[in-house]
Amino acid sequence: ADSCDVFAGVVCTLRMKGGGFGVVDLFVDYHLSIGFSHIWLYFDDIHDDSWKEVKDYSEERLTIIRRSQSEREKVWTNDSPDLIKRLGGIGVTRDHVTARQILNASEALKTALKAPENSSRHVEYLVHIDIDELFYTKSNSIIPHFRWLKSQGIHHITYANHEGIPHRTDIDNYFTQITLFRRNLLTLSLSPSTKKSVSFFTSRTPHHQYFLFYDNGKSAVRVQPGVFPKNVHGWSLPRPEMGQGMQSEGKSKRMVSALVDARNLNLKGYVDVRDPCILHYPVCGERWLRSKYEILGPFPTHWPSLERKVNIPPCFHLDARKAATSPKPTEKLKDLFLSQVILSDNLEISKQIASGTCMRITDIASRRTRKVKGSKNSTPVSEKSREREDISGKSVEESSEKFLVLKPESKESGESAEFSEKCLDLKDETQKSVKSGRGDGLNALAMDKTWLISQIAREFLVTGTTKVRS
After folding, report:
1. Rounded distance, CA 359 to CA 350, Å?
2. Which of 135, 100, 106, 144 is nearest to 279 (CA)?
3. How far apart are CA 29 and CA 31, in angstroms?
4. 355 shares a domain with 418
5. Which ranges are annotated Basic and acidic residues under compositional bias (predicted)?
C-alpha cells in the first residue's frame, strides 16, 4: 500500500432475528472489498447466531463483539462514563437501541485511537452505519476519497442517503435482491417530471412521506481524541477550549455535508459529493418489516441525541410500531408493506427512473470477493482501477478527486446577501416549519419548502446563480 494511503473503518451495532440470510457476510465482504481497513460488529443480542456467517474472517480485518448485558454495562461504565452521564441527562437509558449504538461507536473509535500504527484497527476515519446500510461508491476503492478528505482538512462529512424499494414480499438478502432506490429528496431537481414522481410516493402514505425513514444522511469522522457520537447520524468534534488543537496538516478542522438541508442550513459546509453515498435498505421484505418491529418493540416516541431529545412526528415508523403491537400484528404489518413499501409496477418503476427520482444499482453482489483478508499494508483487490459511472452520471476517473469544496463566505457581500430573493423570503419560514420534520421522512408541511430552499441553495453554490432549473 502507498505510504500516503488513508485508512478508514466501519462500526455497526446489529441484531438479526431468525437468521442473517447472508446479509452479515455480504456487509463485511463488500466493505472490505472496497478498501475499508477494519470493521467492528457489535452484536446486540448474545444469542444472535448470525455472527457465525463471518466467524472465519481474519481478526486483522474484523472485530466481532458479543457480550452479555452485564458485560456490556461493565465496559460502558468503565470506558464511557461521560457518555452515560450525557445520555442520562436527557432521560435516555441503555434500554434504547440508539443509546447502545452511540456507546458502541464510541468504544470502536477509542479502540482505533489506541491501536498500533501497523494494525488494521489504526484507522484515520470511522463510518457509523447500520446492518441495513452500505457505504456505496462506484469507484473500486474508498481510499482516494478519504485521502482527499484528509488533504482538505475535513474532519466530519455527512453523506446523502438513498432508500431501497422492494419489488416483492419474499426478500432474503436485501443487499443482493434490491436494486431500486429512491434518491434523497435534497439531491433532486425541481423538474415537473420529478415532482410528479415524488407525488406518487407521498400519495401512498397518510403522512405524505417521500422517504419512509430518515433522510438526513450518515457520517464519517476523523479519528482523534475528544470525538464522540452525538447520535447515529453524526459525531461531535473536540472543542478548541479542550486544548486538543483545531489544526491539522495546516488546515482548520472542517465539518461538511453533501446535503443542503434546510433543517440545519449551513451553506459554508456544503460539498458537492454525490459519490460515495449511503444505500439504505429499510424493511426490504415483509420478513424484515416484521423482524425490525418485533426487535424494537414499543419504543419511545422520540429520538435520543446528545444534543437534545427529538420527538418523532406522525410517520410510517410510528404506524409500524402501532401495527406491530396490535392484536393482529402480522396482518397489520402486511397491509402496511403492501400499501406503502413495495413497488412492483414495472411501468411506474420505468417512469420513476426516467424522471431521475429513482435509480438502479446492480453491482453490489458482483463486487463480493470473500478473499480480502490480508494485512492492512497489502494492496486490496479494490485498488485496481477501472472507469465506471458514478451516480451523478460522470465517470469516476473524471470526478473521484475533483469534489467541489464550496466557500460562499468568501464572496464579498457575504452569505446572506448572496442568497436569492426567493431563498431569503423562505429561509425563516422554512426553518420554523421543518423543525417538526426531523423524524423519519419529511412531513407534508415541511417537504415542499425544504426541497425548494435546498434546490435554490445548491444551484447558487454550484453555479453562482439562483436560477432553479425546471
Report:
1. 10
2. 135
3. 6
4. no
5. 383-395
The residue count of the chain comes to 470
Tell whether 342 is covered by a domain: yes
Q: Where are the alpha helices (DSSP H) in 163-276?
A: 174-177, 192-202
Where a domain ends, among 366, 382, 403? 366
Say if residues 60 and 120 touch (Cβ distance below 8 Å).
yes
Q: Do residue 432 and residue 294 come from a single domain?
A: no
* Domain termination site, one of 366, 382, 404: 366
Judge whether 406 lies within some domain.
no
Sign of CA dihedral 84, 231, 72, 119: negative
Contact 54, 40 (CB under 8 A): no
Contact 133, 214 (CB under 8 A): no
Rounded to two decimals, what is the model's pTM? Answer: 0.83
Sign of CA dihedral 377, 9, 270, 353: positive
How do beta strands 251-252 and 254-257 pair? unpaired
pLDDT at residue 152 greater than cutoff 50: yes
For 421, the domain range is 414-463
Same domain, 453 and 352: no
Say how far apart CA 397 and CA 213 lie, in whole Å: 33
8 A C-beta contact, residue 149 and residue 157: yes
Convert the pLDDT of each residue in 398-447 to its tens digit: 333 333 333 333 333 444 444 445 454 545 554 454 444 444 555 544 56
More reliable by pLDDT, 444 or 280: 280
Total domains, the chain: 2
Rounded to whole angstroms, the Cα distance separating 364 from 367 reads 6
Q: Give 261 or 234, the one with higher predicted confidence.
A: 234
